[in-house]
Write a structure and sequence with these properties.
544 residues; OB fold (Dihydrolipoamide Acetyltransferase, E2P); five-stranded mixed beta sheet
């Protein structure tokens, strides 16, 4: 005979439906197959969102692998009765346990940005804007095509040479940080997808549908569409930035840029300067250097003044702004001072679903984390009447900054550190040498699977010669087909220089005599003639 709990499960299963629940989930498995039980989610500006859901599976033994990389849409019921979608792609699914005819599972899904973490590439762009480069990377992912757009106040300059040697995720984040760009998501109203919006201006961000949010420190039944907790923080940061660059085409001209934090941030120690050598030719003009300085200082200014809140507002989203009302410390401020942009959100939601208590003891359940959060905000008891299956609760914890301040992402994604590599000198078809007035050459790296192996394969690269001076030195320009060693200034993948040449199985040395012969041999262009100087160090046969 079935146990009492199994009988209860069967009866509850028969009447379980998502209709009019706080949380509803659309999945490829069909209607009312996966019922959301509880949710914890994080969303960060530029980084997308990560959603974990405990679900009840009304069919036992579902093959979890059929959910991986598939689209799902979570619907969150608003206080007014309508629902708002959150679309994403499942990247994790596991079974927590079973009870009778019900499986308790857990899913995790994210925006299409998550796919970028699982693709790594090595490729070169030349004379492309950052927008063009990012579009090329996004379009490598079918889920991203047509699902992004740029809303930039200040479009990027053309990058003469840009190398990817990392995952798509790291590369995209790195370029956006260098440009001072950030991104947020727009959900399609029908729940069919989401769009990544890349911008550089907090004033271009959309507001919440209800732009005024009131602060109301009240009891457990008054949490609807209110900010329940509000706190401010101030953080020490560097007070000035100075950067220096150089350009080998104008070696006597040093280029410097600097900027200081605005005095309104307090009496900060003057010695907290951040000085950087930004690398060779990192800014061709002073205006570009000043832009780098501005971006760095704006990032510090943004991080020095932040606010945290806890609310029961269900339609918050990163990259939206609101106006704070009825807070005693801000009440007398101008409206522009009370406008805040949402930078980060943590969601904690318990669905109004029966049988929720039955998964509490399964290892990996989200229940302990939800309980800990409710305790941290003084909400140990569920909102609503105890025992009523139609109750649920939705809280979030947010980080915001004033809208009037520029937001710049911290530069946490550094360029990969490049070690010396080998490459083949390339040039136009039919030519034997391809160089310019500085005796530079172009190469194709061993890992380059896109460029055709001609003069378009790379930028011009300087060559390390035995001696180099003003109209004097030693010159032997590497020829097309030669294997060379390429090093990178400061390990920067965008600053390659040729530092050596190598023989290989196709291009063998002329002399092989146990190391006794040394010298120099040239080759006639288009012919077999040559010039050479040979030194023979065989014992008792020394000669030139």
């Amino acid at each position: 005979m079935p146990s009492p709990s199994q009988k209860d499960s069967s009866r509850s299963q028969a009447r379980m439906t998502q209709h009019r629940r706080l949380l509803q989930l659309d999945s490829p498995l069909g209607t009312d197959i996966l019922l959301p039980q509880r949710l914890i989610a994080t969303e960060r500006l530029s980084h997308g969102y990560e959603v974990s859901i405990d679900v009840l599976a009304t069919e036992v033994g579902i093959a979890l692998e059929q959910l991986i990389a598939q689209p799902v849409t979570l619907w969150i019921r608003q206080h007014q009765g309508h629902t708002l979608p959150l679309h994403g792609y499942v990247h994790s699914a596991r079974r927590l346990g079973s009870d009778g005819d019900i499986d308790f599972c857990q899913l995790a899904f994210s925006s299409w940005l998550h796919f970028l973490r699982f693709r790594k590439d090595a490729r070169i762009w030349q004379d492309k804007t950052t927008e063009d480069i990012l579009a090329d990377v996004f379009d490598c992912h079918p889920q991203a095509r047509g699902q992004y757009r740029f809303e930039l106040e200040r479009p990027s300059l053309t990058r003469s040479y840009c190398t990817q040697y990392e995952t798509d995720w790291h590369f995209v984040q790195r370029l956006m940080e260098e440009e001072g760009w950030f991104a947020h998501h727009e959900q399609r109203e029908d729940g069919s997808g989401h769009v990544l919006v890349i911008t550089d201006n907090t004033w271009s961000l959309p507001g919440l549908p209800q732009q005024d949010l009131a602060f109301h420190r009240a009891g457990p039944r008054d949490e609807l569409d209110k900010i329940l907790h509000w706190s401010a923080s101030r953080t020490l940061a560097s007070t000035s930035w100075r950067g220096r660059s150089d350009d080998y085409k104008s070696p006597r001209m040093q280029k410097e840029a600097e900027e200081q934090v605005m005095p309104e941030y307090g009496q900060l120690p003057a010695q907290l300067e951040m000085y950087e050598y930004t690398g060779a030719y990192s800014f061709a003009q002073l205006a570009q250097g000043n832009r780098q300085a501005d971006l760095q200082v704006e990032q510090w200014e943004s991080s020095m003044q932040r606010y945290a809140a806890v609310s029961g507002v269900r339609n918050l989203a990163c990259g939206r702004w609101f106006r704070l009302e009825e807070h005693p410390l801000h009440r007398k401020e101008a409206q522009s001072e009370r406008q805040f942009v949402i930078l980060a959100i943590d969601w904690f939601i318990e669905n109004n679903l029966p049988l929720s208590h039955q998964a509490l003891d399964f290892p990996g359940s989200l229940s302990p984390a939800l309980k800990t959060f409710k305790q941290s905000i003084g909400r140990e008891r569920d909102i609503g009447e105890e025992g009523n299956e139609h109750t649920g609760h939705c809280f979030n914890r947010v980080e915001v900054q004033r809208r009037k301040l520029p937001f710049r992402p911290a530069r946490t994604h550094q360029k990969p550190l490049m070690l010396p590599q080998t490459a083949i000198v390339v040039g136009p078809v039919g030519e034997e040498v391809h160089t310019d007035q500085l005796d530079r050459v172009k190469v194709q790296f061993r890992w380059d699977r896109i460029n055709p192996g001609n003069e378009a394969a790379s930028c011009w690269m300087r060559v390390s010669y035995p001696n180099a001076g003003e109209y004097w030195g030693a010159i032997q320009v590497p020829r097309i087909g030669q294997e060379v060693i390429v090093s990178f200034l400061n390990g920067d993948p965008d600053r390659p220089v040729v530092t050596g040449r190598l023989f290989n199985g196709e291009q063998r040395p002329q002399w092989h005599s146990n190391g006794r012969l040394s010298g120099v041999k040239s080759k006639e262009f288009g012919g077999t003639g040559f010039n050479q100087m040979v030194m023979d160090d065989t014992p008792e046969q020394n000669r030139i």
